[in-house]
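To the team - adenosine-5'-triphosphate complex, inputs and output below.
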Amino acid sequence: MLEVQSVSKSFDGFRAVDGVSFAVARGAITGLIGPNGAGKTTTFNLIAGTLAPDAGSIRVDGRAIEHEPAHRRIAAGLARTFQIPKPFAAMTVLENVLAAAQDQPGERLLPALFARGAVRAQERRNIERARDIIAFLELSRVEREPARVLSGGQRKLLELARVLMAGPKLILLDEPAAGVNPALLETIMARIEEINARGITFLIIEHNMDLVARLCGEVVVMAEGRVLGRGRPAEMARDPRVVEAYLGGVAA
Ligand SMILES: Nc1ncnc2c1ncn2[C@@H]1O[C@H](COP(=O)(O)OP(=O)(O)OP(=O)(O)O)[C@@H](O)[C@H]1O
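Output:
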């Protein structure tokens, strides 16, 4: 589903991502782990298109996307969340989810002028879909509330809702467990499992090893801009190179 091949990115001569290669199988939930500063978020930004790689290729479903703008990658089925969610604070939960819908005919001039009925029908379908997704993520109670009133965990759920509204086949999650209380974390993990069971592939950056051990069939471990290893979470946790990278990270 995703192939990252020899991808590099430097900031002012500092190699944040240095010849990184890995693949994510269709239908898998793969973890991207490693100590702080390993280059995980930079790798996400390169895959999602918020940063352009200096070198290397990125393929989704066999199609090279590294030169495509971020919005085209979303249309190609790639969606991502952020470590710190950034909902539209003044908009309601429902409006936030609706804003993530792809291919809204109302945004195109000609259909808007000549097919008002069709536009309205599409909008109704979008609202129905958004409300189903909101219910699935247990946010119905706050559907009409502005996003600014949500807790940290609810914001993570709202991000997932927005991502689902875009209809992706591959979802990149940046620290879905960060700042989330244990009850909501259980909801988030269960929903990720259910979404995955419907055939959607995940790549997840996460420091919470309970989440990684439960959800991820395989992890890719990064340190200092490179891939240290890949394998099952329990295997990687025992790998001396991985242990050393984490200890080094703590010491630094
Ligand atoms: N825009 C930037 N300009 C300069 N340096 C950057 C930039 N973005 C990231 N870096 C540096 O690149 C390195 C990798 O950062 P990155 O955020 O990708 O790490 P990470 O593995 O996601 O870390 P964390 O787990 O703490 O989120 C860090 O040393 C960081 O300071």
